[in-house]
Amino acid sequence: MGNLFDLTGKTVVAIGGNSVLGASISKGLAEHGAQVAILGRNLEKANKVVKEIEESGGIAKAFAADVSSRESLEQAANEIEQWSGGWDVVLNAPGKNSTTPFFDLDMEEWDDIMDVNLKGVVVTCQIFAKKMIEQERKGSIINISSVSSTTPLSKVFTYSVSKAGVNSMTQYLAREFAPHGIRVNAIIPGFFPAEQNRKILSEERIESIMNHTPMNRFGEPDELQGAAVWLSSNKASSFVTGALIRVDGGFGSMTI
Predict the structure, then answer these.
(1) Catalytically active residues, by annotation
(2) d(CA 15, CA 39)
(3) What is the pTM of this model?
């Protein structure tokens, strides 16, 4: 069974790999043998993740990239290709949030969040999947979505809309890329407290979350690793594409 999840020889491009969830997933992929390119705007944070991976015996390298800039992503892709020759897995884990009420929302903020959460993922797929197709490399694209993508949460309007777009794009590209041997899936995390959502976790909101989470707790970042390793393996998930995989403690199964 261990061979099903062996990622030795594979290269992973982790967009947003310096974030809390992206870093944890990247570490899990490295522990299973993949070498990981950690991409982020904050190169210092990216290098910190690289150091942690290397200290655990893994292989990784940090690359500066702004997911809202095509030019920046193309430059990063060229640098990663020089480093590794190509890649087999693309992890899209960028994220930006805001608690601005709907009627106070201006288009500058809307564009800013959409550029990172949705447009950035589209451009990433255009750049990195195209190169995979050109090199005839079969592999996997894993998009990080959100529970708010299927049942919109209060106080995060733009974020919810952007992640709903990620789900739709995931299923569209699954069909588009299947003839090339590239699988496209999304992981839907439940509540994993991180920088971008702690500001909206009041005591009242936490109580509401727990009331709708059968497991009655928050998720731990390393609990996303299993799904990501599974989706990265062409052996373990060879017939899985267009799937939206919930890792949410049962949040999506609850109504009232």
Answers:
(1) 159
(2) 5
(3) 0.94
First vs last Cα of the chain: how many Å apart? 39
Residue 152 pLDDT: 83
CB 28 within 8 A of CB 222: yes
| SS3 at position 254 | coil
| Residue 196 clears pLDDT 70, i.e. is over it | no
What ranges do the domains of the chain cover?
2-246
Pairing of strands 89-92, 11-15: parallel
| DSSP letter for each residue of 169-237 | HHHHHHHHHGGGTEEEEEEEE-----HHHHTT--HHHHHHHHHT-TT-SPPPGGGGHHHHHHHH-TTTT
| Residue indicated by tokens 């995989």 | 245
2-246: CATH architecture: 3-Layer(aba) Sandwich (3.40)
pLDDT band at 73 (very low <50, low <70, confident <90, very high): very high
- Are the beta carbons of 193 and 101 closer than 8 angstroms? no
